[in-house]
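This part of the workshop introduces the protein records we will be handling. An example says more than a description, so a record of this kind follows:
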Amino acid sequence: MVRVNTIITTDGEVDDMNSLIHLCLYLNEINLLGVVYTSSQFHFNGDGIHTLGEITPNYRTSGLAGLERPRTKFGPDPEGKSLKSFRPFPMGWIEKIWDGAYKKAYPYLSQNAEGYPTPEELLSITKVGNIEFEGDVRFDTEGSNLIKKYILDKNKEILYLQSWGGVNTIVRALLSIYEEYGNKDNWTTVQANVVSKIRVLGVNKGVGQDNSWLDNHIPELYPGIQTLWPENLYGTYSGMTPLQPDVSDMFSAEWMTKYIHNGKAELMDEYHLMGDGRRIDGEAEVYQFGVNATLDFGFPNVAAKHFNQYDFIGEGDSNTYIPLLSFGLLGNQNPKYPGLLGCMHVNNEESEVPYNPQTGRYEAYNPFIRGYQEDWAARARWCYQSYSEANHSPIVRINNNLIDAKPLEHVQLTADVQDPDGDDVKTVWEIYPHYNRYSGKAIGLKVWRPEEVNTVFTVPEDAKSGDYFVLILKATDVNKTPMISYGTVIIRVY
């Protein structure tokens, strides 16, 4: 398992809260260096003195006009320049999770897996960033300084910066580095180190939840800097009802109340659901989903959607942390290989529409999402069950995960699969065509006897030098809350 280094910045919307609560179950799978409050076009707390237009003339917020129903104005609200705050998020909600529900779950979580940070460690790395206005980069903050510190430290490993709100606190850290080193002789070295080290998630084609990335010329100050965006999205408001038939039930009230919000763990009961009766301090009425159970963004020709009580609300910001989880996939090590949300787009890249074997059509399809949901259900029990009571994922060890081979070569695939709880394990080797780079015409690629752990793959005769094949061993334990692990083999053609 590869645990990557990462820092989160968040604007505190309800989907951010859900993303953080969900992430609590996976804090042993990443190296979390910081959680930072930031602003966005949707939420800023103001400074009691200035207006948005004075600080950020090129703002994105739809302002009060965006809260009207029916809505008649779209895009940035011309009157938004006069706002002194907008949908201010409650400060301290992160610390409340660490020192409350997570603290109660921690003794059980730490029994079930090594690597969970203590509540005290999490409190120590939670900082306030640039929260006053959308796109506000006027000054350094504790949050931007924490980001700056880890960008500049001597650790050469990749640092993933997650933007769950505006990107402005990250931008402030990058501007501060430039202001300190831009006129010094070693600037080109510092610049190159920054570009090679950081990856920013949550900024798509230069645009985040504010305009600060492009407004402050970050691509010009740091040529080659990389932003990442996943092939598949998870839990966005507009995608709350998944298109895949194999997972649509796993976002319903029935599933959520059976496995997640079931009264057995305070940490999971903190998770917000449609119509659960809870209000968010400072939030507008149209977005009080816990009260009205209605999704209505006021867009023309898009009807409001009404949900059942306890249906899934959303986790739109989980799209930045889920790709960092390994599960035995390689996406958190190389964006051209799949992770839990597929491959990662780098900067302006776009992917081809994949083939969905469930429907026989070319359409968005994520073969890993059901396993992720099942894993969530199993880990939710880690909040209140001892190791002997809970389930744990199979352990998959691939003996050689990078193999060079020529056309028609029979490649031996060998692995070892064990279950820590002694459960039976079902295995299958899977090949998804859109994750390969293959210039030939063979269809229906598969390994010989795919249910066997040790087997053979024959490289197609028409494969060319530079092609590669991604073979994924899927291991699922037989349990009432099954868990999945993967092993990945890359076969490179020469």
Remarks:
- The mean pLDDT is 94.
- The chain is about 25% helix and 20% strand.
- The longest helix spans residues 168-181.
- The longest strand covers residues 468-477.
